[in-house]
Amino acid sequence: MSGYLELMETALAELDAGRAVVMAGVLSSSGSSPRGAGAHMLVLSDGRTMGTIGGGAVEFAAAQRALSALHEGQGAIESYSLTKGEIADIGMICGGSVLVCFELYSPNEPERVGFLAACAELMRKNADAWVVRRVENGSVTAVGLFDGNGMRLLVGAIDECVLAGHFTSSAVCLKGEVSHYIEPISQSGRVYLFGGGHVGRALVPVLSSVGFSVVVLDDRPSLALRERFPLADEVRLCDFCSIDVDIGPRDYVVIMTPAHQADYAVLEQVLRTPARYIGCIGSRHKVALTREKLLAAGFTEEDHARVHSPIGLPIGGETPQEIAISIAAEMIMVRSGKTV
């Protein structure tokens, strides 16, 4: 379960118990603020918080403002700025500013509860979904949920023509007299992890914690067990020579089987798919041999260039946990459209 979905699940449980909650979310940020658009913190009626919008003084002030919203029964938008001279005084290492939206959810407002439930359902389904907020004069005047098939509105009205071309994998701010904030809350696409050994087992919780949906596949019955991967969406027993997996353009593939031959068998199959990311564990010597074998089998240099191998960013890690972090970092980079 991704972190944001966990917040939503908790919020829905609180609402079901008759208790209101506030979801604080960063709409936009500038400078060196610690968290960007899309960071969330849930504030419960007893003052407890889940998630983070950056920590330090800003988060403390936001938590207090959320409690005020609960007591007042009304949401709000607040801007928090940190100048360089203030950083040392408040114990934060980052400057900059953030615009935070405080959304109140009450059990007495079934439309808002239903909207939150619809967001959570799309996230559970691993579907494309974006929340759109229209902001006028410092207030949210319309909220919609876009799922690729149209907009489900919570309040107000949103002109979808204004938003065309802006439903991406990153948060977007369209500023003007009337501003629109477009936040992706779920993106379709899974990680197909071939090989459930030590590194694979370390990788699953890391990927899950940053919002990736993971399917683990292994040909060893002793390893393809659900209890070994509690945070995976699925665990399957798989013949590496015939993977029988429908891999689409939003999917990620990580190959780390127990044998070079099995790695190559999987790689040869996934290179025939439009996978967004293909990573294969191995040394530079193995990469060179794999390239020769692929070219001999009729694949092109462009095909081979699609493969991230050696896999992961070169952070110098050696343990399964460190390697897992380097792989996840590379996949986050691809997901965000960044390059080294």
Q: How many domains is the backbone divided into?
A: 2
Q: Strand order within the widest sheet?
A: 13-12-11-14-15-16
Q: How many β-strands, per DSSP? A: 16
Query: Which stretches of 5+ consecutive residues score pLDDT under 50?
Result: 85-93
Order of helices and strands: HEEEHEHEHEEEHEEEHEEEHEHHEH
Q: Describe the global form.
A: elongated
Estimate the strand proportion: 25-35%
Strand count, sense and closure of the main sheet?
6 strands, parallel
Integer average pLDDT: 89
Count the DSSP helices: 10
- Give the % helix: 25-40%
Question: Gyration radius, to the nearest Å?
Answer: 22 Å
- First-residue to last-residue Cα separation: 28 Å
Which structural class is indicated by helix and strand composition?
Answer: alpha/beta
Describe the 3D structure.
- By secondary structure, the chain is α/β, with parallel strands linked by helices.
- The strands form three sheets. The protein has a six-stranded parallel sheet with strand order 13-12-11-14-15-16, sandwiched between helices. A five-stranded antiparallel sheet has the order 3-2-1-5-4, sandwiched between helices.
- α1 runs antiparallel to α4 and α6 packs across α10.
- About 3% of the residues have low confidence.
Short structural description:
With 340 residues, this protein is α/β, with parallel strands linked by helices.
Question: What key attributes describe this structure?
Answer:
single chain, 340 residues, alpha/beta, Rossmann fold, 2 domains, six-stranded parallel beta sheet, five-stranded antiparallel beta sheet, 34% helix, elongated
